[in-house]
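S1.2 Input.
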Amino acid sequence: MVDMLKANIRDRIISSHGKLFSREDVSAKELEDVINRILNEIVQQEHINLLVVEKQKIIQELLNDFLGFGPIDSLMKDILVTEIMINGPKKIFIERNGKAQLSEITFKDDKELMYLIYKLLAPTRRRVDESNPYADISLKDGSRVNIIIPPLALDGPMVTIRKFSNTLKTVNDLITAGTLDKRMADFLVACIKAKVNIIFSGATGVGKTTTLGVLSAHISNDERIVTIEDTAELHLDKPNVVRLEARTRNIEGRGEVSIRELFNNSLRMRPERIILGEIRSSEALDMLQAICSGHTGSLAVLHANAPSEVIYRLETMILVSGVLISIEAIHRQMAAAIDIIVHQEQLLDGSRKVTYITQVNGIKDGQVNLEDIFVYDLEGINPDGKVRGKWKATGIIPKFYRRFEKVGINISQEIFNKD
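S1.3 Output.
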């Protein structure tokens, strides 16, 4: 009976008071009053004998559902949990300390899981239904959420939450976490200040966007920054930031605004720094051309398994965009526009590390010439399962090193001495 009452009240709140729990400033007292009123109405109408303790239990659990995250509320608050993967109502996997494991927490059924999905979607412009069965959204704290429901998801609603890390806020935090060493950090900070064009690459979930966000703190407060993302994830603590987010089609199939359209519009907004949350398709060529026309200091994220794959993926994106351009011209554009690639990986022990800082140094034999400046040398695995290795400088001095001196950045050339 208690579960049926909860479901009935929840349905009424969603249908009649949906705007209430989508507000960011809704108070627990305000929501409790609504729940209490609806509960009393149902009890009176259906002549239900309800114990005080049962009534309190219903109210508290509904408050947890609407103000928190329902059954996964404890996982969202656990700072050691970095990812939550809900494979239908009965299987919830979590990533803790870089390792995936099955949680004991479950939802009662698909319906309870869908309530969580509606709550996550409520403050956004996104929706999921049979005609549009998947969505990407960002939570208020910066966590990223992917939702996909039946009929595309065969075993029930699927929700993947990549939690935003509050522990990695500064470059020193990255060093402490073992993401990179101090000389690499000093070099990358200098690159940001000198408006070097950087692509952050790696597989899904390795920390590319986190590293980009941390380094972005070193952009001058005088610069006008335009961020362009498919799902808003970057939150830069800068005074002059314009945040743009792509838009999906509405229920009539209209209103879509692509990353490429936003990028082209951003060029008219007097940007001094453009940050692309992720390069996905035809905007690749627009970005390269924009950089070549003077928009330096651009930062972008791209999924790839190695620095060399960054080049192949960009090449493919441009070719499939339908623009009539030769491969030779594409490589010349990349060589002229990209300065360095910062490649990040998740290693066997779950740790996330920058494994390559690679510069693009012109054209060689008709192809983009890549030169590693720093690499992570994996030496082995310790008995406790931890990776063993160290970062090494290759002896390559960046082609743009003199640019540091021109803008008054003092960085010793000795950090590039070969290890």
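S1.4 Remarks. The mean pLDDT is 89.
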